[in-house]
Specification:
Blueprint (H helix, E strand, L loop, with lengths): L14 H4 L9 E6 L5 H10 L6 E6 L2 H19 L14 E5 H9 L3 E2 L14 H7 E2 L10 E2 L2 E13 H7 L18 E3 L3 H11 L15 H11 L2 E2 L4 H7 L4 E5 H10 L3 E4 L6 E10 L7 H9 L2 H11 L16 H4 L8 H5 L2 E2 L5 H17 L6
Parallel strand pairs: 1-2, 1-3, 8-9, 8-10, 12-13
Antiparallel strand pairs: 3-12, 4-12, 5-6, 7-10, 7-11, 7-12
């Protein structure tokens, strides 16, 4: 599953601009997703350090590239182990890497990363339980309350419904929940993400179930509801789906908040809503590569990202939410965040929302088979 690169406005300063010419292994070497950390936050972090270490923040275009980096380091290390001591070369492995929560299970199973030391993280307890649970896994990558801490979440978002204000004004109503997608007025007027977990998941939510349902065959009316939804949708796409919304070719699009929020901020004709029955959540995480060089700056950087004031600034600049934010007393938050229900969803909606946890192979097979049946049940739509 891929999420698109962040579409951040002119207020975000890319690290590539900030750190141009900064190469080599620094005292803190981080490979991160482009545009997810504002450069001014890196400057502030450096000013707070008593020493003057080298900081190398190297942005990558997408999460797939970052996961591939972890795999390439592992392959190189295996090759190095086969060489004699005189032939071995130094491999520059980052201290931290951005990873999407979707990739976490595979990174653990493939032994690409190592657990974090929570005792060295002063702000770990500020992290709400929902995010602590997300990164506690067993050695197979499955959620485990007694598992080790394999990652540090630093931002998160949602799956949203974006819609054209002008088009819905003529209809006389506004979308509020997933069940609106089944209304006859929207037939062939919206797009869905080309992702089985997302589409089957929102249908499960409509039926009062979790995105992580383990036995689809026991969910009454699931297949019939999916058939109806498939007949409603104009097309499936996980990339460039907002262009049709901008031009008015579609009236509504289901998509990811990191794509949608910057658009809502700049265009008055497009609005968005988090479905009231709950939605899918995603999170970007810091992970520690398996064979990285240890440095105390690793934990210092993670703690810095979890400082309330820093978390607020990063949330506003990147239009993604720090996991620390839901745990802060609303009276202590700026109005730009506490009054923005898209950045900080109401507590009851957040409680009903789900991260997409890894599923057993047998369950994955159920999702895959159902998805193929639904997509082939009527004429194939372009994706």
């Amino acid at each position: 599953m891929k999420r698109r690169n962040f579409l951040i406005g002119a207020t975000a300063i890319t690290l590539a601009e900030f750190l141009a010419g900064c190469e080599g292994q620094g005292d803190l070497n981080i490979q991160l997703l482009k545009n997810t950390i504002p450069a001014q936050m890196v400057s502030k972090f450096k000013r707070e350090l008593t020493s003057q270490p080298k900081l190398n923040f190297n942005p990558q275009e997408n999460l797939t590239e970052l996961f591939s980096l972890l795999q390439s380091w592992q392959r190189k290390l295996l090759l190095e182990e086969q060489k004699s001591s005189t032939e071995q070369t130094n491999i520059n492995i980052a201290n931290l890497v951005t990873l999407g929560d979707y990739w976490l299970a595979n990174a653990i199973k493939q032994e690409l990363i190592q657990p974090l030391n929570s005792e060295a993280l002063q702000n770990w307890n500020k992290l709400p339980e929902k995010w602590q649970k997300l990164v506690k896994r067993n050695n197979q990558g499955y959620a485990d309350p007694q598992g080790k801490i394999w990652a540090a979440p630093y931002q998160w978002g949602t799956t949203l419904i974006a819609y054209r204000v002008d088009k819905f004004k003529t209809l006389g109503w506004q979308p509020k929940d997933w069940n609106d997608l089944w209304r006859e007025e929207l037939r062939h007027r919206f797009s869905l993400l080309n992702q089985p977990r997302e589409v089957i998941g929102l249908t499960l939510k409509k039926l009062g179930k979790s995105y992580n349902a383990k036995n689809l065959s026991k969910v009454e009316n699931l297949k019939s509801e999916l058939v109806k939804l498939n007949q409603q949708v104009k097309y499936y796409a996980s990339n460039n789906y907002l262009q049709s919304l901008i031009t008015g070719d579609t009236w509504l699009a289901v998509g990811w908040s990191n794509d949608i929020l910057p658009l809502v901020k700049t265009r008055k004709d497009i609005a968005a809503v988090i479905p009231t029955s709950g939605t899918a959540l995603w999170s970007n995480l810091w992970v520690k590569p398996a064979a990285t060089v240890e440095t105390s700056l690793t934990e210092k950087w993670i703690d810095f990202c979890w400082e309330p004031q820093i978390a607020e600034q990063m949330s506003l600049i990147t239009q993604t939410t720090s996991p620390i934010i839901p745990g802060i007393n609303p009276t202590e938050l700026t109005s730009e965040i506490k009054d923005n229900s898209l950045l900080l969803p109401p507590e009851d909606i957040l409680e009903k929302s789900d991260f997409l946890y890894p599923l057993a192979d047998s369950t994955i097979q159920q999702y895959s088979q159902l998805w193929q049946e639904i997509r082939l049940s009527v004429e194939m739509k372009s994706g």
